[in-house]
Here is the input.
Amino acid sequence: MLDSSPQKKNFESLLTPFEKILLKSKTFAVSVSGGSDSMAMCLIANDWAKKHNCKIVALTVNHQLRKSAANEAIVIGKWLESYSIKHYCLNWDEPKPKFGLQASARQARYDLMIKWCKQKNISVLMLGHHLHDQVETFLLRVEQNSGTYGLASMNSISVRNECFLLRPMLKLPKEILQKFLIDSQQDWFEDPSNYDPRFRRTHIRNIVNRLFHDRLSFKVISNVIGQFRILRQNIDDITNLFFKNAIKFSALGYGTFSYKLLATLPEMVIQRILVRITHEFGGKIYPPRGKSLKRIIELVKTQNRFFFSLGGCQFVGTDEYIIFFRDQRSLIAKEVASGDEVLWGNTIKISICGPIGQTAKLGPLGKRGWLKINKVSDYEKPINMPHTVHYSLPCLFDEYGVVHVPGINYYRPKDKINNLRIASVKYVFN
Here is the structure.
């Protein structure tokens, strides 16, 4: 535990475990809501960046849920300007849901910041979550009956859409961060929604605050989280080995692994493998519900022939192998032109080439497209593959039909209308 005195070198040491990522990035973003945790994180990160010849930018998201939020963002900008920190305010302009507002707002905040970072070629986003937030997350997940993996709570390093999310302060209580700001003569805002009794998280936060004053209880919970984190790391290690050695990926956009091998693994490992497939292959940020996973794990362990959809992916069980591929229903068609490079479905990088001025639709081949090109002999017919795999293949099409399917080397015969081509397809895995 760090001393509560504002010794900058001590606070800057929080970033030491992340130096490799930060130094490679050179410029990184910090999420700044104006609260004590994010303000402290921003100032600590700025001091570190100056010493290591790096730069930071600060991002504030205005959810437009409070009238005062816009003015607060202006004040935050002035605070940061005094430290020569560039500040940008991002607005959540979408209609607000009637239910699950906090969760939707949290998701919107991540989406807006990560999108901004991607546009600016910034690969690191730093977040100000502290020990109180970690305990709060743990208690919420206990209440929600989360599994072993979820009870490990927040990771200090995670990846979303090829953007590193860093949480260097997970072991620090918020009181130390507030003391740092007070000694630094830096003000902060208190978000009134943190005290709104309508939200379940507010009640959990009140429990955490009471627990903090009972040092023994707080320490016990922190230690429990630590044990779950060790267990999660062990599960991740096994999962990584499985992905590296047991799964075979095809250029056609599907993967296979041994049915018998999977059935021998502990349930929590199988669950993590399935979750990781839906995350990295299906493009899903949040894991499938625990009940869905339990039903599917039971199916996998008791039957060797099955078909199910999960988290944007489809799984087909055979006597020896399980085949998984992207569910075409989760892939949305979009217009493309020559020179475009798009991230399609969050997991597939596709570049387009061809004559300037021509356009086409990028989308899944689908059943209708497959039936049409299947009548043509001039393409590479895959062997021993479910037709549903073909349906999810990336293709170019226009009003006259399918133009190009690189996965099976299909080109529309004698095409004089559209000569756009998919130049490359790369599946992106974290």
